[in-house]
Design brief:
Elements: E1 10-12, H1 31-43, E2 48-51, E3 53-54, E4 60-61, H2 64-78, E5 83-87, H3 96-106, E6 110-114, H4 115-118, H5 125-137, E7 141-146, H6 149-160, E8 171-175, H7 190-195, E9 202-206, H8 211-220, E10 224-227, H9 244-258, H10 265-272
Parallel strand pairs: 1-2, 1-10, 2-5, 5-6, 6-7, 7-8, 8-9, 9-10
Antiparallel strand pairs: 3-4
Helix pairs in contact: 1-2, 1-9, 2-3, 8-9
């Protein structure tokens, strides 16, 4: 399923749950800022937007109406050029029932789901199984977030046990989140690939200034790539990035060097859509 000569999905994560314009003046917070950033990134080759929204105080939010407002702003600017993925990230303030309730109310095109948050223990498996089945039946594209090869192993155990549907569901391998200083090393991808035991489209995001090297490794090995200010504010040479679009542009240039065409929004939907 992952083809090192096939179309490359570039996802952009422009803000995240924690950063603010104090971290970078070009970090988007409002719906219109997000739409402007999304358009600039689409013009550089992004085909997917990983979306966080904020409340009136600038704090991470899982409010469905706030999401709708931001999604409408992006679609008004870009139509269907980007696959829009919402996050259910807990960010230390939301529990699984609230995370699941957002998805049921919003019914987004695509959603990111963290195994460690939604299935933290055996007691949570029944509710999680019902929710994951509903997500797939509703035609929502889920992407499961995994922070280590051990989490991938648990994901596969849950999949074999029926808690997660036995489909080729998209995976996101996160590099560097729990490393010293939240910095990433491309070699950290290899344990994930060694552990992966079934066909599934996978993507990498990486923390810190090693983001681009990790993106290069993932793209060369047939994966897809997520970049953006949520995880990294620096260009590949270590200098400050001027915008999220600058980080996307670097990956576009990388894809050209590797001979991988860029996916557009429709192609991203096709590549990530769950299959048997």
């Amino acid at each position: 399923m992952n083809d090192d000569t096939g179309p490359l999905i570039i996802a952009v994560a422009p803000n995240g749950a924690y950063k603010s314009p104090a971290d970078h003046p070009a970090l988007p917070v409002s719906a219109q800022q997000i739409a402007h950033t999304a358009a600039a990134c689409a013009n550089e080759g992004a085909s997917m937007l990983h979306l966080h929204v904020r409340d009136a105080n600038g704090a991470h939010s899982l409010d469905a109406d706030t999401y709708r407002h931001a999604i409408d702003a992006v679609r008004n600017a870009l139509g269907d050029r980007l696959l829009i993925q919402v996050t259910t990230e807990a960010a230390g303030k939301f529990l699984a029932p609230a995370q699941m309730a957002l998805v049921r109310e919003l019914r987004p095109d695509c959603v990111s789901l963290a195994i460690r948050e939604l299935v933290p223990d055996a007691a949570s498996e029944s509710a999680a199984a019902e929710f994951f089945a509903w997500v797939c039946e509703a035609g929502i594209i889920p992407q499961f977030i995994l922070y280590s090869a051990a989490e991938l192993r648990r994901y596969q155990t849950l999949r074999e046990g029926g808690v997660i549907p036995a489909l080729a569901l998209p995976l996101l391998f996160v590099l560097g989140r729990y490393s010293a200083g939240q910095t990433s090393d491309p070699r950290a991808l290899l344990p994930f690939l060694d552990e992966l035991s079934h066909e599934a489209p996978w993507m990498v995001c990486a923390f810190g200034a090693g983001e681009h090297r990790c993106a290069a490794t993932a793209a060369a090995l047939g994966g897809h790539v997520r970049v953006g200010f949520e995880n990294n504010l620096a260009l590949k040479d270590g200098s400050p990035a001027g915008s999220n679009a600058d980080l996307v542009m670097q990956v576009r240039e990388l894809a050209a060097a590797l001979g991988r065409p860029l996916a557009d929004g429709a192609t991203a939907r096709t590549l990530l859509r769950p299959t048997a």
